[in-house]
Amino acid sequence: MGCGSSSIKIKKSAKTIRAALIIQNWYRGYRARLKARQRYALTIFQSIEYADEQGQLQLSNFFSFMLENYVHIQEKDPTLVNRLFGCAPQDDRGRQECVGIIEVPESYSGPRLQFPLNTNSLTIMIEAFKKQQILHAYYVLEILFETKEAMKQMPNFTHIRTCPTKEITICGDLHGKLEDLLLIFSKNGLPSGYNPYVFNGDFVDRGKCSIEILMILFVSFLLYGDDLCLNRGNHEDFLMNMRYGFTKEVLSKYKIHGKKILQVLEEVFAWLPLGTIIDDEILIMHGGISESTDLNLLHHIERNKMKSVLMPPVPVDKDSGTETKKNKGHVPRGVKLSGSPSDYLTKHEWEQVIDILWSDPRGKRGCYPNTCRGGGCYFGPDVTSKFLNKNHLKLLIRSHECKPEGYEICHDGKVITVFSASNYYEEGSNRGAYIKVGFCTTLRFFQYQVTKATCLRPLHQRVNTIESSAIRILKERMVSRKTDLIRSFQLQDRTKSGKISMGQWAFSMENTLGLNLPWRTLSSHLVLTDDDGNIDYMTCFHDIQIQKPVKEVLSRWKNFIPCGNFFVVTTTFILVIPKLMSLLKEWT
């Protein structure tokens, strides 16, 4: 009897184990499918983001071309170039005269700072920002002028060292997300001589609190300059700011003083160091490297000459100090830029800075153009190894790319990406992270996510939210190119049946929208198929608003208008008319 009872128990245990394994395998598959959907959604967000950045660079090239061919407009309006590129002539008034005319009224209820600044100033300011109070323009300008003077004393690359008693905290992109910065300080402590930080660029744009983040970082830098490093990112660029929201934020918050604040910020951004080196072993730069990156050259260039990556360089003959004939085309004929050619970087120096601000690592060997962003390059593990060996370094830490977990390690552990803005694309879309570097370059990774209602929901609900948002944004992009898409579909549809194959549809979508996405996987969210697997391509537009061609053009161009408020002066708009006319001819 005892043996029989034992045999039954064993059989029941075996069934229980098999059932548990089946449930476990199902759940793992379910989680994997959810993660795959999340990755696809993030790929959509990222592809559209990079396409917009590429468009910004192409717009800069377009304006250069227009200036090249419409010289008579420049002759009638000599200030056009400066207005077009956003580089207003610098005011010759000194700091005292500029700030002295601004008074802080008694009715002002925001934080009041005392100069010289102290640790209490930082605390007061942070508490005020938590209450959504705005720092008065007087204090903002004082901080900016102080920061500018301090930045002038900084080298292109800041060298710092670890010690047994303290770790160095490295933060990536913040993009105006004040809640993430405050969460980092809450978990990790405020900057101090005992708690050093490196902030690796892209402090501004996209988020709503970019100026607050800058004020916190700049005051911290003024208080603890030896223990707080600020690197320049590709968004510390006044032309990028016009496109991605920071300019609009400053003008909205500071009204009549906004223009002056932006002018001073343009100078401050130009003086930001290009990178940080820890213990002569870890290099921290915002973007990455290329096969031609020359660290020695980057140590010695005059970084303040590069106000914007998007402005064409002025080629200079080093021997004569004059503009060279060979590369004269980099500045449009008839364009009179303020200052002499020596006030600008050479083309080679300009390319070096672009590479370290815009490049991204990839698994493929070699170095090739960054076709997604339109600037910088993709660099492979062989390029990384060669660069690190040549410069006697062990590790490259960079930012510039949103990662689902907040950080990513690649190239055999020699490249680390850290991104500190959580919920970057959508609530719940990604974690933020920071890295702590200890003595002997030991690394510790910390992840977080600003807690919101969406983030507390189950994974499948969060993925549904992210996926729906990504599909909505993708459909908006499809609307802006509706006429082009239909034309491409009809070229593939030789029988005029209204249907094409899945391969033809994917080809048309990728070529027309310029987005390298898994179109076959996404097709179920975007279009209807028949029983034979053919695509009814007009169903792409069934559940989205159909716009007329002229509205398509406006929706395609509205993102390029500074601040999104269409303040285009008549003379500047003349430059765009020929391009618009060429587009409109397609529908006449």
Could you explain the architecture of this structure?
This protein has two domains: 84-455, 4-Layer Sandwich (Purple Acid Phosphatase, chain A, domain 2), CATH 3.60.21; 473-587, no CATH class. The relative contact order is 0.12. The chain is α/β, with parallel strands linked by helices. The protein starts with a helix and ends with a helix. The model is unreliable at 320-338, 546-557, 559-576 and 583-588 (pLDDT under 50). It has a six-stranded mixed beta sheet. It has 19 helices and 17 strands.
What is the C-level CATH assignment of the largest domain? Alpha Beta
Q: Structurally, how many domains make up the residues? A: 2
> What order do the strands of the largest sheet run in, or round the barrel if closed?
1-5-6-10-12-11
- Poorly predicted runs: 320-338, 546-557, 559-576, 583-588
Strand content: 5-15%
Cofactor: Mn(2+)
GO biological process, one term: detection of stimulus involved in sensory perception
Domain Serine/threonine specific protein phosphatases: 231-236
GO molecular function: calcium ion binding; iron ion binding; manganese ion binding; protein serine/threonine phosphatase activity
